Amino acid sequence: MGEQVAAQQAFALSVESGLLKSELQFRQFLNVLPAAAYMCDAAGLITYYNGHAHELWGREPLLNDDGDMFCGSFRLFTPAGEPVPHEECWMALALRFNKEFNGEEIVIEREGGERLTVLAYARPIRDEDGDLMAAVNILVDITERKRAESQLAESHDVLERRVRERTEELEALNRELESFNYSVSHDLRAPLRGIDGFSRALEEDYAGVLDATAQDYLNRIRGGAKRMGALIEALLGFSGIARGGVEKRPLDLVPLADAVIERLQARQPARNVCVRKPVNMYACGDDRLLAIALQNLLENAWKFTSEQEDCAIEFGVDGTEDEQVYFVRDNGSGFDMCHADRIFVPFQRLHSGVEGTGVGLATVQRIVHRHGGRIWVDSEPGAGTTMYFTLPD
Rounded to an integer, what distance in angstroms lies between the CA atom of residue 211 and that of residue 277? Predict the structure, then answer.
């Protein structure tokens, strides 16, 4: 009989030891959680809490103290700032209505007036008969995250406002540029036409009166007016590239190049220039803008091969499947690559005494950039120049 009692006592001690061990493991588990975790009994009184709960509440919670509810010392609000009665908080609803919460956002105002935003998780615990035993509650403090989100939203609003202001400034500048272009195209062209016309009239009507020096002066005046007119046209074309959209579509570049070569040959039929190009060369881009780009590139090659005995111009494409590189190559005069950074700047001319406005390559660069591509050059004095550019799909 004594042995049976001893065995029962040993079993009871074993069970109690196992329960104590399980409770210790449970407490250690809750303390590891990076959130406020606590349990309350069926009456809503705190029976256990971890260290994070103590930090969140800012005070020692009440444990089974004559019916004093834990949340009685807090004020609760919705994220919009509307008060939440204690009987409608997550813990009360979990206990009264067997309701579960899985991350409901709520604002807690602590005793000192500080407000914290938390995500509330709650789950009721019932016994085998379905009777309410307790509730497990977890609060995740997201105050800093919400503050960061608010700052990010504020920064986004500030950025949007600045973008709108900058856009309005650019639109105003574009309107001023259009007004300037209108003034250039109308107010400057008329005086130039008058200078050229009256100079020609003097040359024709008083040819017998004017000596050679005076006629030379008139020729210089007319030449200057002609160059000024060409420069105005180039400037208008350069500024016009920035306006309007880029309508990309598949196209063959060879017919565009052919049209330019035909005009150049018709202009100087005595020149014998060997032009090499493939039968087809496909790309994706705006045919109007790319025609202007090829016109400037081919005209440059045509112009700077004029002193060569065997003039050669090649229009081709190299590259890989990932990137096609188009090029215009000539065997003309070339230039020193130490000046390469100047060739795409308007009015920067590397060859003195050569006809041109210094705007053509700047126009080509703007067109290529508007297509999202790149443009660069390789040249050597006396060995020709190759202009490369890409046109991404």
Answer: 51
pLDDT tens-digit map of 91-103: 777 777 777 778 8
pLDDT of residue 173: 81
Check residue 356 and give its pLDDT. 53
Structure tokens at 7: 């065995």
Please give the structure tokens belonging to residue 146: 């919400």
Mean pLDDT of the chain: 79
CA distance 46 to 24: 18
Distance CA 221, CA 202 (A): 11
Q: Which residues of 144-159 are buried (b: 16+ CB within 10 A; e: fewer)?
A: eebeeeeeeeeeeeee
User: Which residue is listed with tokens 């200078």?
Assistant: 195
**CA–CA distance, 153 with 159 (Å, rounded to integer):** 10
Q: How far apart are CA 256 and CA 279, in angstroms?
A: 12
